[in-house]
């Protein structure tokens, strides 16, 4: 995503929305954010919540391993043929922003192998607050930060926090243990983001991913409208 990213929603991005045969391709949603904030846990929970209604596939990006893909496989959130790992071998943001070819190939392979798909989730390898996706790779993006990373993170800004289509502040269950002020995090995030949505989640509670799943459903409704 670039700083001039439009917030009209994925329906506004229609340049290559069709497959070569004219049918609509899957909506592609990127998940970025610092290492350990809960991106893989969010992807897993989204798959469990949405897989009965939607045809879903996942691309993971790890620097040197297939760790995230293997976690998703071990937990059987989707059949193995719906999960592809990209080993970035370098700064993870390079593979989702600068040279997106390996990721584009992965999403196109998935569409071909198991499509038609409704939704492809692309998880970034995750590094810092500056990692965002190219609009050539995803139609919308989610930035995941967490309460344990410090309650000043929303205030520090950066393109992920300020411009992602959805900001997720995860691990709210840990707030009492790390002394994070959730109200302050929500206020600071709103101040950075204007009208853009922010949700607070705890993936340790039942249907903790609910607000993110609702947002994904709304994006899909706009995409297929
Ligand atoms: N307490 C708590 N732990 C969480 C939550 N979400 C994820 N985790 C844990 O945080 C760790 C990192 O999560 P992961 O999804 O691998 O982070 P990623 O690096 O962003 O993909 C794992 O041990 C998860 O089980 C949450 O809402 N609450
Ligand atoms: Mg991960």
Automatic annotation (TrEMBL):
GO BP terms, alphabetized: urea catabolic process
InterPro entries: CobW/HypB/UreG_nucleotide-bd (IPR003495), P-loop_NTPase (IPR027417), UreG (IPR004400)
Protein's cellular compartments: Cytoplasm
GO MF term set: GTP binding; GTPase activity; nickel cation binding
Gene3D superfamilies: P-loop containing nucleotide triphosphate hydrolases
Binding site for GTP: 33-40
GO cellular component terms attached to this protein's record: cytoplasm
Keyword field: Chaperone, Cytoplasm, GTP-binding, Nickel insertion, Nucleotide-binding
UniProt region (Disordered), positions on chain: 1-20
Highest taxon above the source species: Bacteria
Assembly and binders: Homodimer. UreD, UreF and UreG form a complex that acts as a GTP-hydrolysis-dependent molecular chaperone, activating the urease apoprotein by helping to assemble the nickel containing metallocenter of UreC. The UreE protein probably delivers the nickel.
Role this protein plays: Facilitates the functional incorporation of the urease nickel metallocenter. This process requires GTP hydrolysis, probably effectuated by UreG.
Family (UniProt): Belongs to the SIMIBI class G3E GTPase family. UreG subfamily.
Protein name: Urease accessory protein UreG
Gene: ureG
């Amino acid at each position: 995503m670039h700083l001039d990213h439009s917030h009209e929603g994925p329906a506004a991005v229609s340049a290559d929305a069709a497959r070569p045969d004219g049918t609509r391709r899957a909506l592609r949603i990127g998940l970025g954010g610092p290492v350990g904030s809960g991106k893989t846990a969010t992807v897993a929970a989204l798959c469990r919540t949405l897989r009965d209604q939607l045809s879903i596939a996942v691309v993971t990006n790890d620097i040197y391993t297939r760790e995230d893909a293997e976690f998703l496989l071990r937990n059987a959130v989707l059949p193995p043929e719906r999960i592809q790992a990209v080993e970035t071998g370098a700064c993870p943001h390079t593979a989702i922003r600068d040279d997106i070819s390996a990721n584009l190939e992965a999403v196109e392979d998935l569409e071909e192998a198991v499509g038609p798909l409704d939704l492809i989730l692309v998880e970034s390898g995750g590094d810092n607050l500056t990692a965002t996706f190219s609009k050539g790779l995803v139609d919308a993006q989610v930035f995941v930060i967490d309460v344990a990373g410090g309650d000043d993170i929303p205030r520090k800004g950066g393109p992920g926090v300020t411009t992602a289509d959805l900001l997720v502040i995860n691990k709210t269950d840990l707030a009492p243990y790390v002394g994070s002020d959730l109200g302050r995090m929500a206020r600071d995030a709103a101040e950075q983001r204007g009208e853009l949505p922010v949700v607070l989640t705890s993936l340790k509670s039942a249907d903790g991913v609910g607000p993110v799943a609702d947002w994904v459903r709304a994006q899909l409704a706009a995409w297929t409208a």
